[in-house]
Amino acid sequence: MSDVSAVKAALKSQVIETPSWGYGNSGTRFKVFAQPGVPRDPFEKLADAAQVHAYTGVAPKVSLHIPWDRVEDYAALTGYAEELGLRIGAINSNVFQDDDFKLGSVTHPDPKVRRRATDHLLECVDIMDATGSPDLKLWFSDGTNYPGQDDIAGRQDRLAESLAEVYERLGDDQRMLLEYKLFEPAFYTTDVPDWGTSYAHCLKLGPKAKVVVDTGHHAPGTNIEFIVAFLLREGKLGAFDFNSRFYADDDLMAGAADPFQLFRIMHEVVKNGGLEARTNVNFMLDQCHNIEAKIPAVIRSVTNVQEATAKALLIDARALAEAQSSGDVLASNGVLMDAFNTDVRPLLAEVREELGLARDPFAAYLASGNQERIAADRVGGEQAGWGA
In terms of DSSP bridges, do strands 143-144 and 189-190 run parallel, antiparallel, or are they unpaired? Predict the structure, then answer.
């Protein structure tokens, strides 16, 4: 796309969803480092998300995680979000932190445990109804640690049965987004280990079931952009969970480890219509900021995704198609590299200025004094979510 005005329009309309849990304390399996000023309830999480949106202009949606973000009055929570200029995004289930789920949740050998897990998923659909959320996002830690521990095919049958029940509960304008993860915490088999497994279940369920691509959930060397292109072609890409990783599921800031990979992914998104409203792809961050300040880190992640998107939009599609059709390998690669090597920060600064925002959202937030205010105001109590 060589028309700068069209590039700017696409960047202005971009929507990046931020995760409620990204604003709270988190850590590794070894240690959680608490920070001052983290949210003590879901309302304060929304307030922090509103800061990110206020400085970037492209983050009006917030994912909730149940039970971490469970409240008595979802109408009040939704109303507060609207007051802040936000709306509720995906509702994320949690069937991985209860002792009953040690051997699995919806794939557990005990039907009573499976019933409890499925009931939680149905509760999440109720919360979708109450908040206006369009998406139910599912991730299962289910799997086995040892050969012979359970029936591999039987667990797929149990998974399919639970998914089908929840799918039938969805409203006409609601979707099921099925995430996958290569390994951890199960180390022998994982019940939804890859995009093919997720795709197969979603295909069987129907048009309201889509695949979630978490950029940290792949074996080293996996070509994630191929997965993205394939799922877009099939109409089955529902959402991204953007983060970076060096070794496994590191959940670092998007674009921190390999900005070229993020650019390649966004190239396939742009080329295959993933930014268009008709495809309805949800671009979400799924990150845990273990040692860095939360709000600034989320802002940095949002701007990293913006930069990758801007570079992808600047690719000369005509020149690329001509080089590809003529079999000119070096010219084809050169078109992509020219776009990737473009410094798009001045362009994005112009876009923000035209939106009435500061040219540098990261610096503007740090200068606002909000970080110091929340550290002073949020004293006492416990943070909302895991890891405190």
Answer: antiparallel
Question: Which parts of the chain fold into alpha helices (H)?
Answer: 4-12, 42-56, 74-83, 111-131, 152-169, 195-205, 224-234, 259-271, 294-313, 317-325, 329-340, 345-354, 361-368, 370-377
- Tokens representing residue 31 in the block: 């240690």
Sequence-ordered list of residues with C-beta below 8 angstroms from that of 249, at least 6 positions apart, any chain: 181, 184, 214, 216, 217
DSSP state of 100: G
Q: What is the pLDDT of residue 156?
A: 98
C-beta separation of 118 from 165 below 8 A: yes
Tell me how far apart the alpha carbons of residues 66 and 104 are, in angstroms, rounded to a whole number: 18
Q: What is the pLDDT of residues 13-71, one digit of tens each?
A: 999 999 999 998 887 778 888 889 999 999 999 999 999 999 999 999 999 999 999 99
Q: Which long-range contacts (CB under 8 A, 24 or more apart) does 77-81 make?
A: 77/42, 77/43, 77/46, 77/131, 78/130, 78/131, 78/132, 80/43, 80/46, 81/46
Angle of helix 4-12 relative to helix 345-354, nearest 10 degrees? Answer: 60
Q: CA 181, 187, 191 angle in degrees (round to 5)?
A: 50
Q: What distance in Å separates the CA atoms of residue 299 and residue 289, rounded to the nearest whole number?
A: 12
Predicted structure pTM score = 0.95
The token duo for 81 is: 């979000």
Rg (CA), the chain: 21
Of 41, 12, 18, 44, nearest in space to 300 by CA: 18
**What is d(CA 142, CA 159) in angstroms, rounded to the nearest whole number?**
10
Q: Beta strands 87-92 and 135-138: pairing type? A: parallel
Query: What is the rounded CA–CA span in Å between residue 268 and residue 53?
Result: 26
How far apart CA 301 and CA 307 sit, in angstroms, is 10
CA distance 56 to 12: 10
**In contact, 388 and 382? CB cutoff 8 Å:** yes
**Residue 221: is it exposed, middle or buried by C-beta count within 10 angstroms (0-12/13-18/19+)?**
exposed
CA distance 388 to 166: 31
- The continuous run of DSSP H or E covering 217 comes out as none
Cα distances (angstroms) measured from residue 304 to each of 36, 56, 199: 25, 11, 28
Token pair listed for 104: 């699995």
Model confidence over 320-370: pLDDT tens digits?
999 999 999 999 999 999 999 999 999 999 999 999 999 999 999 999 999
